[in-house]
Amino acid sequence: MHELSIAMSILDVVEEESARHGDGRVAAVHLKLGPLSGVMRDSLLAAFDLAREETPLKDCQLLIEEIPIVVYCPACEMERSVVSIQNMCCAVCGCPTPQVLKGREMEVCAMELCQ
Amino acid sequence: MKMRPRLVEVRQRVLKQNDLIARELRQRFLDSGIYVVSLVSSPGSGKTAFLERTLSLARQKYRTAALVGDLATDNDAVRLARSQAPVKQITTGTVCHLEAEMIRNALDGWMDPQLELLFIENVGNLVCPSSYDLGENLRLVLMSVTEGEDKPLKYPTIYNTADVAIITKTDLAVAVEFDAAMAHTNIHAVRPGMEILDISVKSGQGMENWMRLLESHITEARAAHAGKETQSTGAVE
After folding, report:
1. Among positive and negative, which fits the CA dihedral B161, B40, B129, A68?
2. How many domains does chain A have?
3. Residue of B nearest to A73 (CA)
4. Which residues of A lie inside 8 Å of B (Cβ-Cβ)?
5. CB within 8 A of A53, min separation 6: which ones?
6. CATH number at residue A17
7. pLDDT at A47
8. Using one digit for the tens of pLDDT, what is the confidence trace for B144-153?
């Protein structure tokens, strides 16, 4: 539902960052997206298609890299993946843990510029 | 020949703007000694009734006010004003969540400088509010017994970004065959160790526990702030 405003924020970031790198055309933007970001991948792609229309970034592709959830497991004393987003337990030993280290990301990590 | 595009590293959070404003708000609340609690839930889970009762109880002890987000009407603000605490409506129009900037704008010229406790009621929505930091100290997620025990499994992200879960309308639990133990298990599956309170605003059951929990969080935040102040004064001397 809020994917359109997220898509517009991505375009803002791209415009700001591309201006700092000269006036090249931005062919693509790379986004890291965690399952705990509150944003659905497919909805965001659809919203991005709409948001880029009639802007200087109308040909810019959105490439989404989905980041898995990583937690700190107090039993294993190390970083682990979880069983699932519905079951936030260490995938190795099954210990429940609320310490999320990765998975909330919603970050523009790179752009492809054509000069 | 077509040129290969050049890859440029960026590393920029998409909601950078919101996060910056939220950070500024958090600092402002800290400096002014205001503890901020936000509420999220699906529509109809009893946020407003819960908040109305909370405001009446909390204002006996703290200078309390509330901001309330709503898509179109001011019905909730009118209801909350019955508690006699200052209440301000944020009409979001088509926007399905509150953002930090809306909070900043709403506080401009309205915030009582002596304020101690501020509640922010988000728009009824379990998806979008999870992405936006509002500068709050404590985020409550509410679910009513009529929504079913599996609500947390359907919306894990909002539970994961909240601090305390409140199960409301427990006076209806028997009528709807609500399995409280299952609900607690599901909440803890998506957010291990989360504090959970079972509350009926109608009968008042659980409200005392909630006020105790709130007080302990406020006391803890004040102690942490006072500790820092002493430390920094010590450093100057």
Report:
1. positive
2. 1
3. B192
4. 1-2, 5-6, 9-10, 12-13, 17, 21, 24, 27-28, 30-31, 35-39, 85-89, 96-98, 100, 104, 106-115
5. none
6. 3.30.2320.50
7. 96
8. 999 999 999 9
